[in-house]
Amino acid sequence: MPVKIRLARHGRKRRPYYYIIVADSRSPRDGRFIERLGSYNPNSDPATIILDFEKALDWVIKGAQPTDTVRSILSREGVMLKKHLLEGVKKGAFDEAEAERRFENWKKDKEQRLVAAIEKLKRESETERNKRIEAETKVKETRAEAIAAKYVVEEEKEVAEKEEETETTENKEQVVEKPVEETPKEEPKAEEPKAEEPKAEESKEEEPKEEPKAEETDSKEEPKEEPKDNKEA
After folding, report:
1. Are residues 150 and 102 in the same domain?
2. Is residue 122 part of a domain?
3. Closest CA relative to residue 110, chosen from 147, 79, 64
4. Domain of 150, in residue numbers
5. d(Cα 18, Cα 41) in Å, to the nearest integer?
6. In terms of pLDDT, which residue wins out, 101 or 209?
7. Is 148 within the bounds of a domain?
8. Alpha-carbon distance 108 to 91, whole Å?
9. Fewest C-beta atoms under 10 Å: which of 104, 168, 213, 233?
10. Are 9 and 72 in the same domain?
11. pLDDT, position 214
């Protein structure tokens, strides 16, 4: 029975993760499997791989054929290198201690490269973040300068309008209030001596007082009487 080591897809749309499984090549992708060896999550950076190293090595030695994606995963985790070193021990190229030493050296080198890659990603993310922050600050500064310039222009316009209003009012006042021409002042003439006039009181005393008319009073007081002879006649 041909056995394959492959991926079984899980997760939601556009956010998949995979199980590393051992299954019959004739079974469907997400169907029955013999054993699960680990998981693979490509959504993280770097990708997260969880693998049972001993089981994967055992299945590879037994002859299970990994797919291309699983082969790259196994080679990244060192399964394919360990298989190659064990084959060299069987052929007598070197002993098991040498194989273990070489594998440990490769593992340390791989860990160092992984740490360097993670640090590089962090630095790149920090630089990108700083660039974004600088770009945002520049945009904010330009907006603030534009707003300040706008306020300055508006203030200058207001000041200019006020000055124009004051100038117009001053011009109107100047037009209304014309300068009065000063006529030359006449020199005061020498006053001639005036003849002394009699005082008003003396003139009043000299005027004779008018006596009341007796006739008019008598006429008012005494009514006219007609003669009786005429009435009898």
Report:
1. yes
2. yes
3. 79
4. 94-154
5. 6
6. 101
7. yes
8. 26
9. 233
10. yes
11. 46
The mean pLDDT value of the chain amounts to 78
Is 214 inside a domain boundary? no
Domain count, the chain: 2
Using CA atoms, how far apart are residues 25 and 36, in angstroms rounded to an integer?
Answer: 15
pLDDT at 218: 47
pLDDT of 186 reads 58
Structure tokens at 72: 């790259």
Q: How confident is the model at residue 217 (pLDDT cuts 50, 70, 90)?
A: very low
Q: Nearest CA to 16 among 25, 3, 7?
A: 7
Considering the domain architecture, whether residues 71 and 133 belong to the same structural domain is answered as no
Single residue among 14, 44, 76 that ends a domain in this structure:
76
Q: Which of 46, 45, 42 is nearest to 20 (CA)?
A: 42
Token digits for 94? Answer: 């070197």
Note the residue count of the chain: 233
Q: Please compute the mean of the pLDDT values over residues 194-218 and round it to a whole number.
A: 50
Cα–Cα distances (Å) from 24 to 27, 28, 64, 75, 198, in that order, read 5, 9, 10, 22, 159
